[in-house]
Design brief:
Blueprint: E1 2-6, E2 26-29, H1 37-44, E3 49-52, H2 61-64, E4 72-75, H3 85-90, E5 94-97
Parallel strand pairs: 1-2, 1-3, 3-4, 4-5
């Protein structure tokens, strides 16, 4: 699966224990936030899954309509007001929210 991890400002995701779970998948980590829908869509068009760091990127219907390969959105926090939930459900995609337990850094 081709997975995009968005908004990893501190470039820390790859050092978390949980990142090992993504072995065997093609993962790209984005350290910047793109606010323009067209620019964001260009970056994400080929991805099947998005991993969102908190509520940093707005996932709106206009963006979702431009991501034909998307199957799954994973949210690291419990807040999801930045995600157009009705569009996600209408399009039949999965939305997964992480547990409250933090992952540890690998040494």
């Amino acid at each position: 699966m081709k997975i995009a991890v968005l908004d990893d400002y501190q470039n820390v995701v790859k050092s978390l224990d949980c990142f090992k779970l993504l072995e065997g998948h093609e993962v790209q980590v984005f350290n910047e936030t793109y606010t323009d829908v067209d620019t964001l869509a260009e970056q994400l068009v080929d991805f099947e899954a998005l991993v969102l760091i908190r509520e940093r990127t707005v996932i709106c219907q206009a963006l979702l309509a431009k991501l034909p390969k998307l199957k799954l959105i994973s949210q690291t926090g419990k807040v999801s007001n930045h995600i157009d939930l009705s569009s996600v459900m209408t399009m039949g995609w999965l939305l997964q929210r992480a547990s409250a337990r933090p992952s540890r850094l690998r040494s």
